[in-house]
Design goal:
146 residues; four-stranded mixed β-sheet; four-stranded antiparallel β-sheet; 8 strands; globular
Length: 146
């Protein structure tokens, strides 16, 4: 008898915050449910039942970066399929281009999916070091000034 793979669906809201030639990224921890640990990823995450996407975006941004959005514009949506920990994920990602309130960077959520947060120079980013969602934000031109 074969083992069955659990299938989960998730809708997530992600922040694309770029300034001064840098992109705000989080490094995924071992607790990451969808994408591989160690990859640089966009701040954001799953939308809880009954939560509005922009509410989830603000909550996740604060948990993962210590920063709050002052403006958010829905810019794109993508879907992903991933396998991790015996789970087959179908992820719908909503990308928001955001402006952030000032403040220090810090991960405020203990034992979450974020190991660290940093402004990373756009010129130094390589697709192999990025989650599929972060790589798509670059490919879609979401980091360019509008």
């Amino acid at each position: 008898m074969g083992t069955e793979t659990e299938v989960r669906r998730r809708v997530s809201a992600y922040a694309v915050a770029a300034e001064d030639g840098r992109l705000l990224l989080t490094r995924l921890s071992e607790a990451s449910p969808v994408f591989a640990p160690g990859l640089w990823h966009l701040p954001g995450g799953g939308i809880d039942p009954g939560e509005q996407p922009e509410e989830a975006l603000a909550r996740e941004l604060y948990e993962e970066t210590g920063r709050r959005p002052v403006r958010a514009r829905l810019a794109a949506a993508r879907t992903y399929a991933a396998e991790r920990g015996g789970v087959s994920w179908h992820l719908v990602a909503l990308f928001y281009v955001v402006a952030l309130a000032p403040g220090p960077l810090r991960v405020t959520e203990a034992d979450g999916s974020t190991a660290e947060v940093a402004w990373r120079p756009l010129a130094d980013l390589t697709p192999g070091a990025l989650s599929p969602a972060a790589a798509d934000a670059l490919a879609l031109g979401l980091t360019e000034p509008r």
